[in-house]
Design goal:
By secondary structure, the protein is of the alpha+beta class. The protein is 42% helix and 16% strand. The protein is built from three helices and six strands, in the order E-E-E-E-E-E-H-H-H. The strands form two sheets. Strands 1, 2, 3 and 6 form a four-stranded mixed beta sheet that branches. Strands 4-5 form a two-stranded antiparallel ribbon. A hairpin with a 2-residue loop joins strand 1 and strand 2. Helix 1 packs parallel to helix 3 and helix 2 runs antiparallel to helix 3. The two termini are 30 Å apart.
Length: 152
């Protein structure tokens, strides 16, 4: 695994646990499984931690950041729905406030200026939208089995 430097445009965002963001990128495919419910692969073996960095241009711009929040919050809501997590009117509020508190206070974003606040507020927004969209799936009576069709 590597330490990942995440960028928004040309700006390195290292606040509130955006750095070091450890990721496994070199692996033997015999030990990797892909979970269809998410967009991330997971590794069945314990990775060796290397003291190296990779640059990850996570977001082209702040607009791109918001667009990705829209996409990933939808995917996360569908995943929760397939897992049988029930709708709740309080969960979007409590979970998003906790996410904001965690990034701003626990992860030290409050001491990292505008980047720390940006990470905290976007994390809060992502969490809020994930649970609001989960509620919407229930309100529309969407069948959870249709979220992630099986691949051939």
């Amino acid at each position: 695994s590597f330490r990942r430097r995440n960028f928004c445009g040309s700006r390195w965002i290292k606040a509130a646990s955006f750095y070091p963001d450890r990721v496994t990128r070199l692996y033997n495919k015999n030990f990797v499984n892909y979970n269809n419910n998410t967009s991330h692969a997971y590794i069945d073996a314990k990775p060796r931690k290397l003291d190296l960095h990779i640059r990850h241009y996570t977001y082209e711009s702040y607009t791109d950041w918001i667009n990705k929040i829209n996409f990933y919050s939808s995917q996360s809501a569908k995943t929760l729905h397939t897992q049988g997590i029930k709708r709740s009117n309080i969960r979007p509020i409590t979970h998003s406030l906790f996410a904001f508190f965690k990034k701003l206070i626990v992860k030290g974003g409050i001491f990292q200026g505008i980047d720390g606040f940006t990470v905290a507020i976007t994390t809060m927004f992502n969490t809020y939208m994930k649970y609001v969209k989960l509620n919407e799936l229930y309100d529309k009576n969407i069948d959870p089995k249709k979220h992630f069709p099986k691949r051939d």
